[in-house]
Amino acid sequence: MNNICHIISNVKASLIVLATFFTLTAKANVDYIQSTKSSVLDSSQLNKPRFYTLLTGTVVTGSALSYGLYNSWYKQYPRSAFHLFNDAQEWNQMDKYGHIYSAYNQADVYYQLLKWSGLNKSKSIWGGMIAGSTIQGVIEIFDGFSEQWGFSVWDAGCNVLGVAAFGAQQYFWDEQKIRLKVYSFKRSYTQDPLISETGSSMDYQDRINDLYGEAYLTRFLKDYNAQSLWLSFNVASCLNTTKVPEWLNVAIGFGSENLLGGFTNHWTHDGEVFNAQDRHRYRQYFLSLDIDFDRIQTNQVWLKPILSGLNLLKMPAPTLEYNSNKEWHLHFILLR
């Protein structure tokens, strides 16, 4: 079971890498179009060539990726009748915010693309929400028909919450006052050995590599011990004031430490049973400053897509931490 969880973790990490690459690329293209002041962007008049190009590209690309995913992965494992899998307590819910975050940003990208095609605000919002839910939902459906996994109601609910977080802000405020962001890095771990119930040992770092991979990007996206997840509030917009810089945000976040397994710190490796319950799993809560890069004014066309891509990430900044061990810490830069 632990080996299966490890495999699932790495496969889903690859999917997140793909989705993140798509999001960054599409968002950069939209920002480039915006920076060239295309006359269609602010129009409610449908530009049919653009709309059907977008629709065709989405269907073709989505179908190809779904077909490739099924044949390269799910087809290798036994299928079953559609069933559910309860992963509500897995990874201290860190992965659940990942679903919210991905769906939110994918809805944002598709909203911008649909506006580019000439759809009005309301239709673009709904289109973005449907697109974000569909992109995330394909994987959940495949899981549901796979004998070794199952459809996660919690993941699906978080996908809906993510697109709703985008849609509600865009509908009522016509802007994103609260951005969903992520901060992560490839951290170093202790060299202390982990001891099995029979006295065998494995390196702490080897366990981390088994769970989260070794490649930088995979670890960036999947190492929940090194990852923090954020709600970033734009101060000027939320307070309706001009007395602070337009780009200044205040962010609240959360993270977890000592996650050496999905549900518990108990696993099997090479036939040996490891029980690292002394490595207490605990939660962290953060308060920090941030930047809304989309609100930085620039006339440089090439800079706009870079700033937009950076807006997917929480910027390093002094951070105040409180954790479930009832400890306070002040970090000049958050490097957990």
List keywords for this structure.
336 residues; alpha+beta; 6-stranded antiparallel β-sheet; 9 helices; globular
Question: Can you walk through the features of this model?
Answer:
The protein is an alpha+beta fold. It folds into two domains: 1-174, no CATH class; 177-336, no CATH class. The protein is built from nine helices and ten strands. The protein has a six-stranded antiparallel β-sheet with strand order 1-4-5-8-9-10. Strands 2-3 form a two-stranded antiparallel ribbon.
In terms of DSSP E residues, the strand content is 15-25%
Ends: how far apart? 29 Å
Please give the domain count: 2
Rg computed from alpha carbons, rounded to a whole number of angstroms: 21 Å
Please count the helical segments.
9
Anisotropy-based shape: globular
State the oligomer. single chain
Give the strand line-up of the largest sheet.
Answer: 1-4-5-8-9-10
Number of strands: 10
Instruction: Provide the residue-averaged pLDDT.
Output: 86
Question: Structural class, from helix and strand content?
Answer: alpha+beta
The description of the largest β-sheet is:
6 strands, antiparallel
- Order of H and E elements: HHHHHEEEHHEHEEEEHEE
Helix content: 40-55%
Low-confidence stretches: 1-11, 37-42
Annotate the secondary structure layout.
Blueprint: H1 2-35, H2 48-72, H3 94-116, H4 121-144, H5 153-173, E1 178-183, E2 193-195, E3 201-203, H6 204-212, H7 216-222, E4 228-234, H8 235-239, E5 248-257, E6 266-269, E7 272-275, E8 282-291, H9 303-310, E9 319-323, E10 328-331
Antiparallel strand pairs: 1-4, 2-3, 4-5, 5-8, 6-7, 8-9, 9-10
Helix pairs in contact: 1-3, 1-7, 1-9, 3-4, 3-5, 4-5
